[in-house]
Amino acid sequence: xxxxxxxxxxxxxxxxxxxxxxxxxxxxxxxxxxxxxxxxxxxxxxxxxxxxxxxxxxxxxxxxxxxxxxxxxxxxxxxxxxxxxxxxxxxxxxxxxxxxxxxxxxxxxxxxxxxxxxxxxxxxxxxxxxxxxxxxxxxxxxxxxxxxxxxxxxxxxxxxxxxxxxxxxxxxxxxxxxxxxxxxxxxxxxxxxxxxxxxxxxxxxxxxxxxxxxxxxxxxxxxxxxxxxxxxxxxxxxxxxxxxxxxxx
Length: 249
Prior knowledge:
Layout: E1 13-18, H1 22-33, E2 38-44, H2 47-56, E3 61-64, H3 73-79, E4 85-90, H4 96-101, E5 106-109, H5 114-128, E6 131-132, E7 149-154, E8 157-162, E9 166-172, E10 175-180, E11 185-189, H6 192-199, E12 204-208, E13 211-214, E14 218-221, E15 225-228, E16 231-234, H7 237-246
Parallel strand pairs: 1-2, 1-3, 3-4, 4-5
Antiparallel strand pairs: 6-7, 7-8, 9-10, 9-13, 10-11, 12-13, 14-15, 15-16
């Protein structure tokens, strides 16, 4: 197979392979070598040996088999403390729904063709490093300027979104809908927690496992809901105290 390089970002994703089939491990190792954005830091032929390594090291992505003797990939995910991105690699398609319910980036059925492997890696890269923020921080003699916008990937282009124009953000598994003041929304592949980390100090607040809101656009607040535009958005108990503290209620 000819070498194919894909390098969407200069920073490599640190990955681990966990599979009880030696040939499957060799194939994945070969695939990883073909992708410049990946750095393989370890491989394991059983999930039990991988637990302590994952908990003690910085890992961005795991290629994880589901059906393994004694300790399955599902058991493994429920055991580890750190939760890297996961791409399931399995000979069985029966677990696809369960895999996605566990937040998997993708689900690859063996024998895995390289183009599907690459597609899954690109998706992981977009989740891990999805937002390009313009900044002057690299200009050593110029003070850093606080930017009021971000770029997100939507369809085949990078879309500029001004923070002031964002009403709220709704999480849909790996995707989010970003609703704006022009009564439109942008659908992009990114985790809600990534956006929460990016926007928390820019006037936004997480009020529900599925929602981040722009506080400046809140019209009213009820006990368990906020009103933004004509949308009533729920406030969950787990986020209520932090949200109310942020707005001095």
